[in-house]
Amino acid sequence: MKNLIKYILIMLVFTGMIACDTFEPIDENRLDFDFVSTNPNSAEGILLNGYSGLVDQYSFSEAATDDAVNNILDNNYKRMALGELNAQFNPAANWDSFERVFWVNRFLEIIEAGQTEWSKDALTNEMFQMRLKGEALALRGLHHFNVLQAHAGVGTSGELLGIPYFTEFIEADGNFNVPRLSFEASVQAIINDFDEALALLPTDYGLSEGQVDEWYSDLEDFDYVKYQVVNDNFFDLRISGRIVKALKARLALFAASPSFLDDQGYYNIAANNAAEIINTIGGVAGLDPTGNEFYASDDNIKSSELLWRSSLGGNTSNYEERMFPPSVNGNGEINPTHNFVMAFPMQDGYPATEANGFDPQNPYTNRDPRLEKYVVTNGASFGGGTINTGIGGGNDRLDSIPQQSTTTGYYLKKLLRPDVRINNDNTATGKIHVNVYFRYTELFLILAESANEIGGPDHQVGGITPREIIAAIRERGGIAQPDNYLSAISTKEAMRDLIRNERRIELSFEGHRFWDLRRWGLSLNEPAKGYFFNGSNYVELPSVEIRNYQPFATYMPIPNSEILKFSELEQNNGW
User: Fold this and answer.
1) Which of 73, 378, 528, 561 keeps 20 to 30 A from 138, CA to CA?
2) pTM metric for this prediction
3) Domain for residue 98, yes or no?
4) For residue 217, is it within any domain?
């Protein structure tokens, strides 16, 4: 953490969003803190560091779970899954999010000092102060949550511990030797930051005059034209009140989960925050009809499914080059497992493992249509070719080309643009991709899970029940409603299993499974299965990759380097 502090001033030019021509030459061409704290462009540059290090949707941590195998032998998630996870090697570590915390704490010092003039107009200046402070507090809470998710756990003392919580900037020679709070105290500290941010941020950017939040409209001499300058649609990708409520729901669900507090109060927080947002888009009827293919076209990338996303880049084919099968000039890096494929029900809604109509020798017929959307199965058309992973399949066949051909009998389709083409001459037709930080389907699933844990399949929160949510999600996926399997579910336990399975499918390959298994306390050592056509029959490969997690790996280690530096830090048990 001290490295950030040493270089914080000379790193202020990190972003193109700070216009170089606004700087006056000063001694040695350096920016001292007095200048930075009074120049609005420079000060905002400090805040913008808080937007770095957000979730990378394309990290594919699923390769460390029962959902996928990575074909690259030295892939870090593969190494983790095979038993290398320890306090010195942890690809899922997120301790460096504390660096973003210190950036925003530095910015909050600037805001509190009140020396930065964001506008010559007093009202406009006040509204800028409000919004920017709200962003900083929300980002501070978010980055603490990222650390908490990765490093909370039962300490060597046997207590469920959270993380240190930093609310001030610390100079390089300051005291970083701070003990971890209890888990619940850490959660409450994040909630406090979120709640304070909610009292400062606009619910959405670009609100019409009649929709302006009361904490803005009640300002003395409020002027809507000036409000638009501060909170126009131009800022849509910045964190807003709506996003903070969604993050609060995600945090509360995490805290309420069996591996942590297993607490009805936090399930209530999760459910109420999720329901409040969902009801602003029309309740269950507001589920985006194409939301389960949010990545598939330029229009979908810009759709209402995406509650918070990154900016749009240019046309690329990088992910497709990594993931497409070899016969269409890809490297076949991520292979979904047969475990994951069998999570998809039949088209009538019954689990494939329980359905009378499932034929293991004709395994992809009459299945949930989402399977075809997310996974390349044997004989499928994809990427401009027909993909055969069985005997006679050429370089797409199981291990025909090590580290390229599938090890499981499947290739990945989800998150890839189906209209990308990779040509034989190494040229490519690229398309726009986007990193999604939060989408509405996750929010619906948060409401379903938390409401079910509170009161079962038909418990209403905000007038919405878990059964209604799952019915809507399955109907969008192609399972006609009402389906008999869902209708027959009557217990919290059965609905819990179904919600978890729907979450596994709907949020697949978006970075959730790795953390979901841990918060639910489920086995991390399910062998990764394959399914291979041998020329006449399909044959299950019971273990193409054996998972090897320690029994205490539900809780991830704090980096050993931090434990050695700071005596007040208590390591999680076993590490």
Assistant:
1) 561
2) 0.94
3) yes
4) yes
Number of domains in the chain: 1
> What contacts 253, CB < 8 A, 6 or more positions away?
266, 267, 270, 446, 449, 450
Helix 264-280 vs helix 241-256: crossing angle, to nearest 10: 150
Token pair of 234 as six digits = 């131009």
pLDDT at position 11, please?
Answer: 41
At 474-489, the pLDDT tens digits run 999 999 999 999 999 9
**The residue to which tokens 């919405």 are assigned:** 464
Q: 3-class DSSP state for residue 541?
A: strand
Q: How far is the C-alpha of 533 from the C-alpha of 105, rounded, in Å?
A: 57
State which residues form the domain around 104: 2-65+92-262+558-564
The residue-averaged pLDDT of 19-31 equals 44
Rg from Cα positions in the chain = 25
559 contacts 93 by C-beta, under 8 angstroms: yes
Does 251 reside within a domain? yes
Alpha carbons 168 and 189: distance in angstroms, whole number: 13
Cis preceding linkage at 482, omega within 30: yes
Neighbours of 490 (CB within 10 A): 11
Paired residues of 532 in beta bridges: 539
Contacts of residue 175, defined as CB under 8 A and 6 or more positions apart, other chains included, come to none
Q: Per residue in 271-324, pLDDT tens? A: 999 999 999 999 999 999 999 999 999 999 989 999 999 999 899 999 999 999
Q: What is the domain-level CATH number for residue 236?
A: 1.25.40.890
The reply to whether 540 falls in a domain is no
Q: Give the integer Cα–Cα distance in Å for 560 and 372.
A: 43
